[in-house]
Amino acid sequence: MRVTVNGRPVNVHRGTLVAVAIYLSGETTFRRSVTGEPRAPLCGMGICHECRVRVDGVTHVKSCQTLCDDGMRIETDD
After folding, report:
1. For the chain, which residues make up each domain, given as ranges?
2. Where are the beta strands (DSSP E) in the chain?
3. Tens digits of per-residue pLDDT, 34-59?
4. pTM for the structure as a whole
5. Fewest C-beta atoms under 10 Å: which of 3, 17, 26, 50?
6. How far is CA 61 from CA 6, 11, 50, 68, in A?
7. How far apart, in whole angstroms, are the C-alpha atoms of residue 78 and residue 61?
C-alpha cells in the first residue's frame, strides 16, 4: 500500500499504524504544543494524545490507534 506523509509517498504493509508510517517517512515531530514544542507519541496506546495528526483532512486523529489505508493522506504539524 502507499500513503503520503506531508506530501511524500511511503510504502507500507497492510496493518501498519499511521504512527509507524510517519516514522518511516523520516518525520520525528507529529504535532506542536501550544508553546511550539515538538511532540511525538509517548504512550503508544492512545492515552497521551501526543500522536495526533491530520488524516485525509480530519484533524486530531490518534496515529498510534489508526491503521493505514491505501491512498491515505497524513499530515503532521511540521
Report:
1. 2-75
2. 2-5, 8-11, 31-32, 38-39, 52-55, 58-62, 73-75
3. 999 999 999 988 899 999 999 999 99
4. 0.93
5. 26
6. 15, 20, 10, 12
7. 16
**In what order do the strands lie in the sheet containing 2-5?**
8-11, 2-5, 73-75, 52-55, 58-62
**Interval 8-21: pLDDT, tens:** 999 999 999 999 99
pLDDT of residue 44: 87
Round to whole Å and give the CA distance between 70 and 78.
Answer: 23
d(CA 19, CA 34): 21
